[in-house]
Amino acid sequence: MVQEQARTEKAGASRAALHLVTALIGGIYAWFLITTYAELSTQWSYLGFWYQPPSPLLTGATIGLSALLGMFLPMHSWTIVGFAKWALYFLLFIPSVIIPPQQGILPMGDLIFLLAVIWSSAAAFILLLSDGKPFAKLRLAPRTFWAGVLGVWAVGNVGIFVIFGETLNIVGLEQVYEQRAAATTLGGALMGYVMGTLSGAVNPFLLVAGITRRQPVLIAAGLIGQLLIYSTLAGKVVLGSTLLTIGVFFVFRNGRVMFGRIYAAVLFFAVLGPIVSVYRAGTGVFSNISDLVYMRILALPGVLVGVYSDFFLNYPVTYLSHSLVGRPFSEYPYGMESVGQVIGRYVTPTAAVAEINNYNANFIAADGIAGFGTLGVPLILFLAGLWLWISSRLIGEIDRRIACAVLMPFVVSLADASLFTAILTGGGGMAALLLYLYRSTEEYGKITAPARLKAQSAGNVRGVRVR
Fold it and tell me: Are the C-beta atoms of 301 and 96 separated by less than 8 Å?
């Protein structure tokens, strides 16, 4: 009894120490991200990376709020929901709290209200959301499952070759926009769904399954599939999410999350940010790292929260009429242009029509703020939590390395796209379904193995060999 109590107290003390360390890491990361953003603004101010720093008191307060949010993160081995909380904390919640004040575009009252709503909504998301009870599994033969996955992979990639043909080209990051201009008129909506399914679900699954099973053919299929997707429209997020998928897989050891590896990776990228941003113009390597990792993945989500907030303080919100969900119930106020194009025109009003960037944003900005203004943030976080809860019920208790790594592209797309886009064309829905079916193949093995043993036993009794 005494020993059990001592172990409980030790475990509680260990979790408390991890909470404090996570808060410290979150605060350090926030400070370095602000420093990185200041450097990025010298290169990208014309794209909305405005920099008019507030008072040191407000900057310090946002760093403190970011750190405090980290205190709420779960410290046990990740569940599906727990993994999403950690990923969104660094990829979306911290940038959304610290970067809008640095832009200097929002009136102080509106800025404070925005920060309060985002922080409290994120805190509620982390504290209240939990995994659901797993759905009942199907009985699915592994051979059938793998034939279906590889069939989808093959058909999808053949379709890409047929549609994009001679425009396929693996370009450097400095040639991204030229490649998009060459191929942007090809494909259409259906091909968009196909490419999203492959890049956000099928290819990551093959990659992760190949690493787990030590099957080079599956690894090659996943990587080749991602490179093929990149060679169409040069989507930088495909490269970034693939690297993060591999990184998440190796965060685990013996089925448990190694938090020390997470802290080391976060500190490494935090310190590296200002360095590669300062020397961005010096070498191609620094330029590529700065553009792909810091500008595109880590800073842009916070930038767009500020830009969308500024725009929709002065112009009509969409009530989700920009999405399939709200279109039947409300009239879209911006004609034929998407929300991203409207924001692009707002940020770069002097650009020619052909040069207007499509400012697609994370779900906080693209759905919450664009749909309902600042008060839309808690609503869209509730809907995101609902989807993650449903996903956790589908995925159940399979190998967490596989589940979390396969879901990484979907989580990255949440920091880059509408919630509904991330689910439908970002691979979120298909990834959850794939993992559910994969779980069902495990159940098939558990069901059929005892049956085979029983039949074998009966056959031995009768002198008959059962195959």
Answer: yes
